[in-house]
Design goal:
Blueprint: H1 8-11, E1 26-27, H2 39-51, H3 65-73, E2 80-85, H4 87-98, E3 104-109, H5 113-121, E4 125-130, H6 139-149, E5 153-157, H7 169-178, E6 182-186, E7 207-212, E8 223-228, H8 230-239, H9 247-257, H10 260-283, E9 288-289, E10 296-300, H11 304-313, E11 316-317, E12 319-320, E13 331-335, H12 339-353
Parallel strand pairs: 1-11, 3-4, 3-5, 5-6, 6-7
Antiparallel strand pairs: 2-8, 7-8, 9-10, 10-13, 12-13
Helix pairs in contact: 3-9, 4-5, 6-7, 10-12, 11-12
The structure holds pyridoxal-5'-phosphate (PLP).
Pyridoxal-5'-phosphate (PLP) binds next to helix 4.
Length: about 350
Amino acid sequence: MPLDFIRPDIRAMHAYHVARLPADWLKLDAMEVPYTFPPALQNELAAALARTEINRYPNPADSTLPAALRRTFAIPEQAHIALGNGSDELIQFISLLFARAGAKMLVLEPSFVIYRRNAELFGMECIGVPLKSDFSLDLPAVLEAVKTHQPALIFLAYPNNPTGVAFARAEVEAVIAAAQGLVVVDEAYGAFSGDSFLAQAGTPENLLVLRTLSKIGFAGLRLGYAAGAPTIMQELAKILPPYNMNCLSLTAAEFALNHMDVVNQHIDLLKQERERLFSALQEMNGATAFPSQANFITVRLPDAESAYQKLWDNKILVKKLHGSHPLLDNCLRLTIGTPEQNDAVLSVLAQSAS
Ligand SMILES: *Cc1c(COP(=O)(O)O)cnc(C)c1O
């Protein structure tokens, strides 16, 4: 039987679950942006896509997207850029690149679960260092683990998911300074925070900055990028599939970068809504919202299970973090939506709090 030949550790895994919802539900579980381009721009995009030569392989050397990313996000000259089919794909290939026999990966917990998954997939031992109870970084513990385990790879999400908290910049710098291996600063939510390591990408050699268009309105494009030292990026380039990026995504992404004024308006709206939602949650009986630098807020409630169910009964899907890690006890993660969507969430939560 062919199944018997499949790696037993993979057979024991579970597939990543993606919720499928009827159209009238509010989907606030996956940090998707609730806004799209206005119709006139959609038509322009359609025309650009129609002109794209889908009969040709996408030649990465021909793509003007890396240069556009460099211009738009001020990626420094010293950094080389790699494109990924979502930053998920880059996380996968960076992990593969460092998965020598005996190599270890260090992650913070709770953080993005995909890091550990890739460690498992490529046979790396994964060292998890718990965050403090306010979801800040436990620097002495991280430095101790770096010294003890000498990890080949460290993943830091900055700001962190699923907590929304951004670690202190000086602490991230201390980890980079202490590490011999590569430190990946994953800035999936960088557009919503006040800080970034992108300007340092490429120097020092052991810093790689990971970004994505997913959380700023283009999750469907699957467009992630990495900026890092040329020495490292040249090795990564050897193992990325030659045609990993499809030409429709490349065209659409470049179109998006040419309309950053619209994208930035959406980001600003979501940041304003984040602050409004945060204040409202803070005032709610028994709720503790954690200060977020991302486009979601993680909140601890007296009874997350019942609040989740009440939201569900009102056709609102959020992420139930409760049960996934002891530090996330009674926590829900709320993606920031439109003002009306956020009001709907607040009104259900207020009912269940009273
Ligand atoms: C969403 C997310 C990603 C994945 O983004 P894609 O580019 O859509 O693959 C990576 N890292 C973190 C921390 C995320 O939350």
